[in-house]
Amino acid sequence: MSPTTPAPSEARVTWPQALAWRLERHLLDPVGPASAPEVVRRLGAVLSMDESLADLAVCSRSTSARPGDLARALAEGTVVKAYAFRGSMHYLAPEDGGIYLSLRMAGRQWELPSWVEYYRLKPSDWPDFRAAVRDALADGPRTITEIGAAVTRRKAYRHLEPVFDEGAGTLVKPLTWHGDMSFGPPRDGRHTFQRLDTNPRWAGVPDLDDAGPRAVTAYLGTYGPATIDHVHHWLGAGLSAGRKRLDRWISGLGDALAAVDVEGTTAYVVREDLESLCAATPSDAVRFLPGHDQWVMGVGTKDEQVVQPPLRQEMTRKANPVVVGGVVRGTWARKGDELTITWCDRGTRPDASIRHEAARLGQILHRDLRVSLD
Questions:
Q1: Which of 90, 209, 236, 285 could be stapled to 232 by a disulfide with Cβ–Cβ 3.0 to 4.6 Å?
Q2: How many domains is the chain built from?
């Protein structure tokens, strides 16, 4: 299969069918008793820039998860946190999160002339520098300040003192991509970092050409049926994997993937998922999701099958989507115990289902929410 020449479609489905199948893969319909680590593993990554939104992304997909479960899972090592998609912090599964870090390393940013000049670290200096950071973390989690103090005791890295004093934000990112360290439990409101190789669940960062096909099939298994452009959005724009590499990995998967005609659009799924996709029936499930949830961000706000054009700007700005049958049809906002639903669709508003979902949100947040429908 060539990524630029659509393969003959092996089945036809409608968008409501496709979105219903994807809702099931996202654990959104039906919602079952998945644990926080299970949700993270299914989604591939959960954005963690705002912990309350990360918690809600998990709890929206589980009847048993509660706010704080991600923090507990991080402390237990059943999830890890690293810089991943779009340079932001994400929760990843320790068993397979390394495939995304491998792709993120593909651009080798630390070898760029601007990096070498600014940090005064040549590419050949990185193995020893990485080892120095791992040594600094040998006794457990440390803050950036503590890591910097340990590393810059060495003459070779003394010039990095001002970098660590300023937070070393960009410098530490490749260290998480390499799997040298990840975020640890916060201490007194400050981030800490810890070694990854001490986590027995950590499977490491695989070779790039092993990681690439695994990342493509993982994406299609959760976000399919997806177009080639979707894959480039998630793994290319999201991880800087490179268009030529992605096209090569997609082509190399060959018969492991199946092409599907979704109302005139050629999309792909993993072949073993084709039968269940074709058997899917449209969903009318209503879900309140947090801003920048993977349901939206995984396919991108440009995807008009998920995000109606009038709502694209709202989704980009991190508004909380009201999803009906897989389509963003409105937004929700909470102020205290007041929950305001803004309906933005021409179709009939499913008031009973909206109130039912509002009650579920209230249970998650332990609040008795008063609903206002605009």
A1: 236
A2: 2
- Domain interval for residue 322: 286-373
Whether 7 shows a pLDDT value over 90: the answer reads no
What is the pLDDT confidence band of residue 288, given thresholds at 50, 70 and 90?
very high
Residue 261 falls inside a structural domain: no
What pTM, to 2 d.p., does this model score?
0.95
- pLDDT of residue 237 exceeding 90, the answer is yes
Residue ending a domain, choose from 133, 161, 195: 195
pLDDT band at 4 (very low <50, low <70, confident <90, very high): low
- What's the chain look like in SS3? CECCECCCCCCEECHHHHHHHHHHHCCCCCCECCCHHHHHHHHCCEECCCHHHHHHHHHCCECCCCCCHHHHHHHHCCCEEEECHHHCEEEECCCCCHHHHHHHHCCCHHHCHHHHHHHCCCHHHHHHHHHHHHHHCCCCCECHHHHHHHHCCCHHHHHHHHHHHCCCHHHHHHHHHCCCEEEEEEECCEEEEEECCCCCCCCCCCCHHHHHHHHHHHHHHHHCCECHHHHHHHHHHCCCCCHHHHHHHHHHHHHHEEEEEECCEEEEEEHHHHHHHHHCCCCCCEEECCCCCHHHHCCCCCCCCCECHHHHHHHHCCCEEEEECCEEEEEEEEECCEEEEEECCCCCCCHHHHHHHHHHHHHHHCCCCEEEEC
